[in-house]
Structure formats: structure tokens, C-alpha cells
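We read letters as residues; the fold follows as C-alpha cells. Both lines appear below.
***
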Amino acid sequence: MKRLFWFVLIGLVLCGLVLAGCGPTTAKVRIATDATWPPFESVNEQTKDIEGFDIDLMTAIAERAGLEIEFVNVAWDPLLAGMAQCQYDAAISAMTITEERKEQFLFSDPYFYAGQIVTVHIDNTEIASKYDLSGKVIGAQIGTTGSFEVEKIGGATLKTYDDIGLAMQDLMNRQIDAVVADNPLALGYVGENPDKLKTVGEVFTDENYGIAVCKTNTDLVEKINAGLKAVKDEGLIEQFVEKWLK
């Protein structure tokens, strides 16, 4: 009986030493992204990996902030709802910082300037800018700044899509008259389909992209901002622009 007692005691001591040596494990930070928004985030058809400007940026930020991250591909509307309910720790998805969104979650410092622009079929001669959209059917991704801007245009009919690529496809097939979307995205689609698409007019909004963070996690947003500052100081933003946007 005494021998058994000592075996148990020694076992407990050894277990304690092992656990103490291991230390606490670092939880992964779950980063939501809607991977239907090239060149900022999309799924590589060959590797099936999520890639893009935002993915490279967030990965670099995490390395400099000492964060272990995993990306979660989720549609835009569920992404916004999930962030408001802190189902995800953070989200990077070419997301414009707005006052309404700031009521639902925190934002990092801005990392990219963008704005809305009109895309039409290459043969379209009726639409030269956003001021020609009244009476037209305009496509935009649901819940985006583009859709909000179309709603402001009197006489325009908004058709929303879960995936901006579907809107561009309908435009190429002449099923809608125009698409309103972020200018880097629009230029990417025009670059891939120069015989079918063109942008018209000027960029007509001033927007900044930011990384959304669960509203209760102020510590995380501070770490992300520190990592973002380091990335900016190293000139990596310019490198990512060169890689993905040019």
C-alpha cells in the first residue's frame, strides 16, 4: 500500500513538471474574410488556398505582432453579422471603415485608400459616370459601400449579389447596365476582361479600408495596430500593391 502511494505521488510530481514545462498554449486568432473579392482576397483555383493583398498583409501583421492566425472564408453578410457577435476575432476583407460599422466592432488604423467607381459593358455609350445611372439596373455586392451608394441614386434599380463576380458576369452578359464597386476591384475585372468591360467617370467616394476586430477585444486591436505600423514602416504595403494591384 505504501509503495503504491509513492508511485502515485511520483507520477503526480512528474505530470506537474511536464505541464509546467509546456506552459500555456497560444490560442489561434480567427480572421474572417470573404474570398470573392480579388485582388484583395480570393481562392486560388489550383491550390485552393486563400490569397491576395489582404491575406499577405494580415500574415505580415501577425508575424510582427506575435499572433498565430487562421483565415476563415465566409460570405459577406454572415461575416458582418459574425463580427458584430464576436464569432470571429477579426476580419480583413477590403472593408471600408464607416460610422455604422464602428458601432458594431472596432477597427484598426486604415491601411488602404479606395473609392467607388462605375463599370459598364465595353460597348455601352449611354453611361459616362454615376450621374447617368438613373433609370438603369445597377449591380453591387450586398451589404457593401457600392450597394449603399446605388441606393442613393434616384431612379436607379439596385440588384444585389452575394458575389461581386456574379455581378460582373451579368454585366458582361448585358443582363444589367452597370456595376458599382471599389475601384481596385473594378480595375482588376477590367484588366482580365478588356474586350468586355470598362470603367467610366471618376472615383466618387473617399474610403479607407480597415481590419475589423471584435468590439470587446481592445488588446487585439492594439496588437494589430502595432503590427500594421511595423509593416508600413518596412514599406511592405507598397510591395503588396506592386504584387497584387499592378
Notes: The first helix runs from residue 2 to 22.
